[in-house]
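Illustration 12: TBC1 domain family member 20.
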Amino acid sequence: MKRLKRKKQNAGVGVNGNGSVTREPDCGRKQKLAEIHQALISDPVDIETLRRAAASKGGLLTDELRRKVWPKLLNINVYDLPYKPGRDVREKHKDYNQVVLDVRRSMKRFPKGMPAAERAVLQEQMTDIILEVLKRTPQLHYYQGYHDVAVTLLLVVGERMALAMLDTLSNHHLRDFMDPTMDSTKHILNYLMPILEQVDEELHDFMIRAEVGTIFALSWLITWYGHVLSDFKHTMRLYDFFLASHPLMPIYLAATIVLHREKEVKKTECDMAMVHHLLSRIPQDLPYELLIGQAQDLFDQYPPSLLAKQAALQSRKSLSISTFQAFQFATLHQRPDSVLQRLTKAQGSTTSRQA
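Figure caption equivalent — predicted structure in token form:
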């Protein structure tokens, strides 16, 4: 097994133009809070500092900060959010029945102890958010697991912001999963084995002999791990990281999880069913901060462009990958919320006078 070129453990991260993140000396909680606040009020918004904060140890720290930073990471104007979906969004929608079934099965994703009435309201909102995104962009196709992304956003940022974020993610980071077939999703999964081969050829060869494939990681990838983690704080921490990173970062994290369990895997009988059974069940006590750092190191050492040929996927075929650089560049020119608020009020006043 090759030794990863590890940088200092107590490190923060910065973002390069290709979506990779470079490590910087870690800062204390108070300093990190101050840096995030300063980045948010800078004009233009200091998006690289926000990405660094989201990816570094501890992520964005609080839900209050996530509600401020997540929209910036996706270039969303908080003063120009979409309206709540009307009930007509459900009429004659081809995915309505499947969405409702999946939303009803999402009970475990809500906090323990949440009153049933409150959960029911949120499930109704989740149904409407999903259908509204699909209605807006007919080229997007619903997949089972999409609701796991929707509920994570809804619980953190509320209905209107969740709608805006899900819409943006569906057209960028999650776009390959929303094709009419699973071909693009399978291609993304194909990056997993080349990453493992680069780091631990023995483990890679064992998994090839076992013919286990990569489907064990499917639900990890398409739900950003929301479906498989029982502790919501871990899910939010990973969303901080993924929102600040390249669209393929979830597959790099999958590789670090498999590598972390290397001894368990090699001790298992070299049989497809046995290895799949082991890997498809993620331990709930994983060292997430360590794995996040290792995933970033893997991305830096073995970027997608290096692995694309082995993964049988050229970047131009992946909408998520091919549009990422332009999407990331667009986030660099955002005004701070205080300016957006003034501009929104001024625009409203002008409209009133003209009326």
